[in-house]
Amino acid sequence: MVERNVTIGVEPGLQARPAAQFVQKANSYSSEIFIEKDEKRINAKSIMGLMSLALAKGNEIKLIADGPDDEEALAALADFVEGK
After folding, report:
1. CATH (domain of 35)
2. pTM greater than 0.70 (yes/no)
3. Which is nearest to 44 in space by CA: 10, 83, 52?
4. Domain around 45
5. In angstroms, rounded to a whole number, what is the distance separating the alpha carbons of residues 23 and 18?
6. Number of domains composing the chain
7. pLDDT tens track of the chain, all 84 residues?
8. Between the CA of residue 75 and those of 5, 23, 82, what are the distances in Å?
């Protein structure tokens, strides 16, 4: 299991199109992937869960991945969220 705190750098945050792209990317990995914000943990492969967090640019979140490709998944998703 790997964890990483990241700050959202994509405009306008993980809403609408960026959220859909994030979920699509998360679903390309076999690891379980979660996002934590303010003590709330959601499955990062769920668009409804992601939208429920209302993540805006500048928010800090924790990405958590656990599985056979967890490090690769975490690195790719962190880069996406940070806008790299």
Report:
1. 3.30.1340.10
2. yes
3. 52
4. 2-82
5. 9
6. 1
7. 999 999 999 989 998 899 999 999 999 999 999 999 999 999 999 999 999 999 999 999 999 999 999 999 999 999 999 998
8. 11, 15, 11
